[in-house]
């Protein structure tokens, strides 16, 4: 399983700490990337679309920061 987030810092700190403590892989998808790619998924609610875009981005790109 691979987790993906589009935020870092204190807002995601607890999630990232828990995932790291359990040896889970996490990738960071920059917000700019989410914004650019979300145009391809019009018609979805913003939150659902962003979640889908983040998941698809991680699935297709192997160059994202861990």
What does this structure look like?
This protein has 3 helices and 2 strands. The protein has helices at 13-21, 31-38, 46-60; strands at 2-5, 25-28. It has a two-stranded parallel ribbon. It starts with a strand and ends in a 6-residue tail after the last helix. The model has no long low-confidence stretch (mean pLDDT 80).
Count the strands?
Answer: 2
Strand proportion: 5-15%
Task: Give the terminus-to-terminus CA distance.
Answer: 14 Å
Helix fraction, binned, reads: 40-55%
Structural class: alpha+beta
- Biggest sheet, open or closed, and with what strands and sense? 2 strands, parallel
Query: Which series of helices and strands comes N to C?
Result: EHEHH
Over the alpha carbons, how many angstroms does the gyration radius reach? 12 Å
* Largest sheet: spatial strand order: 1-2
**Mean pLDDT across all residues, rounded?**
80
Unreliable stretches covering 5 or more consecutive residues: none
Shape descriptor: globular
Contiguous helical run count: 3
């Amino acid at each position: 399983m691979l987790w993906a987030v589009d935020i870092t810092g204190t807002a995601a700190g607890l999630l990232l700490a828990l995932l790291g403590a359990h040896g889970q892989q996490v990738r960071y998808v920059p917000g700019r990337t989410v914004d650019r790619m979300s145009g391809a998924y019009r018609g979805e609610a913003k939150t659902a679309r962003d979640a889908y875009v983040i998941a698809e981005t991680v699935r297709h790109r192997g160059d994202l920061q861990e």
